[in-house]
C-alpha cells in the first residue's frame, strides 16, 4: 500500500496552538468557556471556533497577523520532513482547523498550492467571521468545521496507507480513520486509551524516523 500523509497544523507543525495564542492575547474572557466546551466535546468545533473568532474586531487583522508571525515557531525538522516526503514520493496534505490568514504566511514558501486545507476568516464586517469550505460530507455529522475525515475520503484511494500526524482532540476523528497515527499531547493520550496503532513524537525528525522504520518493515 502507498503511504499518504495527513498532517495537522496548530500545535503539530507549529510548537503552539495559534488559535489559543490569538485568543489569549486578543479575546475577552468568555473565549475560555468556548475552548473548554470544544475540548470536552460538549459543542462542535465549528460552533466553538466560530464563536471565539466572533469575539474579535475585524480591525485587529494586521495586529493578529504580526503577532502570529512573531510568536508561531515551526516545529524542528518540518522543512526536512517536507523534503523527505517529496523525495520518497509520499503525498502530504495539511489539514487544519486553523485559518487561512495566519497559515498562508507560514507555509506558502514550504508547500505547493492545493496541499493545504483550512478555514477562511473574513474581516469585512465589524467582527471576524469564519467560512468553512471543507465542511463534513454525508458520512460525518460532527460539524467539524474543516472536516479531516471528509478530506481523507476525498484525497486517499483504496490502495493508500493513511498516516495521520496530530496533537489534539480535534485530530481524533481523523486518527480513528487512519491506518497509523503519529501523535503528541492530547491525541497521544487518546490513541493510548482507545488502542489506536500509533507512535509518539516531539519533532519532525522523530516523524521521519518513524516513517522510515515503518516503510522499511513494510517493504
TrEMBL record:
Pfam families: HAD (PF12710). It is an enzyme of class 3 (hydrolase). This is 2-hydroxy-3-keto-5-methylthiopentenyl-1-phosphate phosphatase. Dephosphorylates 2-hydroxy-3-keto-5-methylthiopentenyl-1-phosphate (HK-MTPenyl-1-P) yielding 1,2-dihydroxy-3-keto-5-methylthiopentene (DHK-MTPene). One of its GO terms (biological process) is L-methionine salvage from methylthioadenosine. Signal peptide: none annotated. The gene is mtnX. Belongs to the HAD-like hydrolase superfamily. MtnX family. Pathway: Amino-acid biosynthesis; L-methionine biosynthesis via salvage pathway; L-methionine from S-methyl-5-thio-alpha-D-ribose 1-phosphate: step 4/6. Keywords: Amino-acid biosynthesis, Hydrolase, Methionine biosynthesis.
Amino acid at each position: 500500500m502507498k503511504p499518504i500523509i495527513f498532517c495537522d497544523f496548530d500545535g503539530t507543525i507549529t510548537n503552539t496552538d495559534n488559535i489559543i495564542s490569538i485568543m489569549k492575547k486578543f479575546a475577552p474572557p468568555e473565549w475560555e468557556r468556548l475552548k473548554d466546551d470544544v475540548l470536552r466535546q460538549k459543542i462542535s468545533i465549528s460552533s466553538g471556533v466560530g464563536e471565539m473568532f466572533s469575539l474579535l474586531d475585524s480591525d485587529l487583522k494586521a495586529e493578529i497577523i504580526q503577532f502570529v508571525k512573531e510568536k508561531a515557531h515551526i516545529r524542528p525538522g518540518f522543512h526536512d520532513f517536507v523534503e523527505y516526503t517529496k523525495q520518497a514520493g509520499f503525498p502530504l496534505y495539511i489539514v487544519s482547523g486553523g485559518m487561512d490568514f495566519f497559515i498562508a504566511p507560514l507555509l506558502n514558501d514550504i508547500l505547493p498550492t492545493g496541499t493545504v486545507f483550512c478555514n477562511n476568516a473574513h474581516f469585512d464586517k465589524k467582527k471576524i467571521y469564519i467560512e468553512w469550505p471543507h465542511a463534513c460530507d454525508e458520512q460525518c455529522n460532527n460539524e467539524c468545521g474543516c472536516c479531516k475525515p471528509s478530506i481523507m475520503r476525498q484525497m486517499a484511494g483504496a490502495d493508500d496507507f493513511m498516516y495521520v500526524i496530530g496533537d489534539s482532540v480535534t485530530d481524533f476523528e481523523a486518527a480513528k480513520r487512519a491506518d497509523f497515527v503519529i501523535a503528541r499531547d492530547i491525541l497521544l493520550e487518546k490513541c493510548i486509551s482507545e488502542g489506536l496503532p500509533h507512535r509518539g513524537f516531539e519533532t519532525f525528525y522523530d516523524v521521519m524516523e518513524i516513517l522510515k522504520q515503518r516503510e522499511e518493515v513494510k517493504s
